[in-house]
Design a protein that fits this description.
By secondary structure, the chain is an alpha/beta fold. Helices cover about 55% and strands about 10% of the residues. The strands form three sheets. A six-stranded mixed beta sheet has the order 8-9-10-5-11-12, sandwiched between helices. Strands 4-3-6-7 form a four-stranded antiparallel beta sheet, covered by helices on one side. The chain has a two-stranded antiparallel sheet with strand order 1-2. Helix 12 crosses helix 13 and helix 12 runs parallel beside helix 16. The chain binds adenosine-5'-diphosphate and magnesium ion.
Length: about 650
């Protein structure tokens, strides 16, 4: 319990410090315009930076045009909203009287709308190209202000006539600025609350997974494009609200010049970078530090025109000395390690499944394995995406689950797959063997949708899925591991498994943001903890996946794939790098998965394992099928001997 209290204290002290500071600064400096104004500025910057962090931190999208959303939010919330809802509008009387209060709604709608539009235009792009589009967007905003000078007032902008009257709000004691101060505080806290909910939700994990490894995200059922667009839209909406708050502070809205927009956009990026990209507290720490730091008299008097230099120098120093920002650096301090949420959760999970006990018959406890597959069907928690071509496949044992017909794929003139036919029977372990470069991984890629075949068809339970996107195939029950391990390195171990169970959850973005996904979350977490125990990683739940050894990462990938409760599991050389005990464990695990009804495609070099485990073996060589049949028969095949097991390849360890 003391542990728990300490963990909570460690987790919550940044927020407590922030609220304490704001509650101190407000009343104590009520008569001091300068400090109160700096407080407002800091909170507005913190809000904008929190918004940017959703795109930059969670999803890895670097925007250098976010100030454009800030300006748009100012216009939408402080000019357009009051105009549309003000005197003479057809809105109900109550709305007309309180028109300025609807500003944030306008800011959110316009910000999200613009963000979506921009994202639709650029989210298929990567890295630098995407950033270039956002840069162009930022440059375009002043141009729009000039083009629509009658409405927007050109570069000089417009004054704001009506703002919400918060002078008499609690604590404000009749001061307009104090009213704006507490309004900003409320909106900052709301932004932080939403960001926090997001970061620990199904949607938030999907965003991070896309950031950390897109291919694995796709094969785990996460649509990268949709999530990027959503992140961008959310990010823009929050920044737009900050723009509205800024209009309350300055009683004006203007884009300034293109250079001003760029400088402001850079300011958000630097704020987040200094504080800590991808952390909740980072944007706030960065914003308060930069605002109060640069607000000091010494800076104001001597460095007013050299702020660019200060920003640049600071950013350089942080990137060089603490690439993960101040918050990231603070977390690394000895003894300051925040006990990860994962460890708190796994404690509430029923007793640990013994990885050695593969029978799943422990009394008093539901058998672990059969539920992997069995649970997925009855629960009806099928694909969250109804647009898939079919529901999850339901075939009887013994019928063909996966049928690959005449698939071809070549790379630079070399045929990796050359008209390959493979039928995988439901409930079987089907091994695919062949020398290095014979096309096995390409086969797995084609089946999971990572690669498009140039010709041929892929059928799952009779339905043609050749043109189905990888993330939809995951929803249909196809899961995999990778030959070159692709765990999401910067996410936690438990988080990796949770994100692997993406298709098993249903909480949409709205529910995630509002924290209404708790019941589902605890179900998914309990399940993920069970799976971690199954692969023997339960003690590592709270660690960063990148800190695991390669062998542990392989096991983590397996748990992640199982979290999707697949019908078809493709394992691409799962034994590589494992020692004998780990190999035995995996063999037992695959056996029991099969007895639970799972169909497994096993790509493996380790001949003994293949002979021991497989029901059917297909030998591929240079992209064509050389032999197929029960392991013993195939092992005796002369052709196979020569091409694969023969002296030329030295026993299959190639
Ligand atoms: P295996 O998994 O059986 O070792 P792969 O499917 O990885 O074989 O590769 C089959 C052939 O296709 C090899 O010649 C390999 O070099 C080539 N290949 C596979 N993927 C790519 C790629 N993305 N780009 C270029 N060549 C590739
Ligand atoms: Mg391979």
């Amino acid at each position: 319990m003391a542990d728990r209290a300490q963990a909570l204290a460690v987790r919550w002290w940044p927020l407590a410090a922030l609220v304490g500071f704001m509650l101190w600064l407000g009343p104590s400096q009520a008569g001091n315009r300068k400090w109160l104004d700096l407080g407002v500025e800091a909170m507005i910057l913190a809000t904008a930076a929190t918004g940017l962090n959703v795109a930059l931190g969670s999803t890895g999208l670097l925007s250098l045009g976010h100030a454009g959303f800030f300006v748009a939010g100012g216009y939408a919330g402080a000019v357009l909203g009051p105009y549309l809802l003000g005197d003479g509008s057809i809105a109900p009387d109550f709305v007309v009287r309180n028109a300025p209060w609807f500003g944030p709604v306008f800011a959110v709608v316009v910000g999200a709308g613009l963000g979506t539009a921009l994202a639709l235009a650029c989210c298929h792009l990567r890295g630098f190209h995407l950033t270039a589009v956002t840069l162009a967007f930022g440059f375009g905003v002043p141009a729009v202000a000039v083009l629509a000078a009658d409405q927007l007032g050109g570069l000089a902008g417009r004054t704001v006539e009506r703002i919400p009257d918060t002078r008499n709000a609690f604590l404000a004691r009749g001061h307009t600025l104090a009213g704006v101060y507490y309004t900003s505080a409320v909106f900052l806290l709301v932004a932080l609350w939403l960001a926090r909910n997001l970061s620990r939700s199904r949607s938030g994990r999907a965003l991070t997974a896309v950031r950390d490894g897109e291919v694995a995200a796709r094969t785990s059922g996460i649509d990268p494009y949709r999530h990027r667009v959503a992140a961008f839209a959310m990010s823009a909406a929050v920044v737009a609200v900050a723009g509205w708050l800024s209009a309350l502070r300055t009683l004006s809205v203007s884009s300034g010049s293109a250079l001003d927009v760029q400088t402001e956009s850079f300011r958000y990026v630097i704020t987040v970078t200094v504080g800590g990209v991808g952390t909740l507290a980072g944007p706030v720490v960065g914003a308060f530090l930069l605002t109060f730091g640069l607000g000091l008299d010494v800076f104001q008097q001597h460095l007013r025109d050299k702020l660019g230099l200060v920003f640049g120098g600071l950013a350089l120093a942080v990137v060089a000395l603490a690439p993960s920002g101040l918050v990231g650096a603070a977390r690394r301090l000895p003894g300051r390690r925040c006990p990860a949420r994962a460890t708190l959760v796994s404690r509430s999970v029923p007793e640990r499944a013994d990885p050695a006990d593969q029978s799943g018959e422990t009394p008093g406890r539901p058998p672990a394995r059969p539920t992997l597959v069995g649970r997925s069907v009855p629960e009806g928690a099928g694909p969250t995406d109804q647009r898939g071509p079919a529901d999850r496949p339901r075939t009887d044992p013994g019928t063909v689950l996966l049928s690959v017909r005449g698939v071809t794929r070549s790379f630079g003139g070399v045929a990796a797959l050359d008209g390959l036919d493979v039928d995988v029977v439901q409930g079987s372990v089907h091994a695919l063997i062949g020398p290095n470069g014979s096309g096995k991984s390409t086969f797995v890629n084609v089946v999971t949708g990572v690669e498009r075949p140039a010709g041929g068809r892929v059928l799952l339970a009779g339905a043609d899925i050749t043109d189905v996107a990888a993330h939809r195939r995951a929803a249909l029950g196809v899961a995999r591991t990778f030959q070159g391990v692709r765990v999401w390195h910067r996410m936690g171990v438990l988080e990796n498994v949770l994100a692997g169970g993406h298709v098993r959850g249903r909480a949409g973005l709205g529910r995630c943001l509002l924290g209404l996904d708790r019941a589902e979350e605890s179900r998914l977490r309990a399940r993920a903890s069970e799976l971690l125990a199954l692969v023997g990683l339960e003690t590592r739940a709270g660690d960063r996946a990148g800190d695991l050894t390669l062998a542990e990462q392989r096991r983590l990938e397996l748990a992640r794939a199982l979290a999707a409760e697949p019908a078809l599991l493709l394992l691409d050389e799962p034994l590589a790098g494992l020692d004998e005990a780990e190999r035995d464990r995996l063999v037992r695990l695959v056996r029991s998965l099969r007895s639970g009804g799972l169909t497994v495609v096993l790509v493996e070099h380790h001949v003994e394992t293949v002979l021991a485990l497989a029901d059917t073996v297909t030998v591929v060589h240079q992209g064509v099928k050389l032999a197929e049949g029960p392991p013993a028969l195939v092992a005796g095949d002369a052709l196979v001997q020569e091409a694969y097991l023969g002296p030329a390849s030295g026993g299959g360890g190639a």
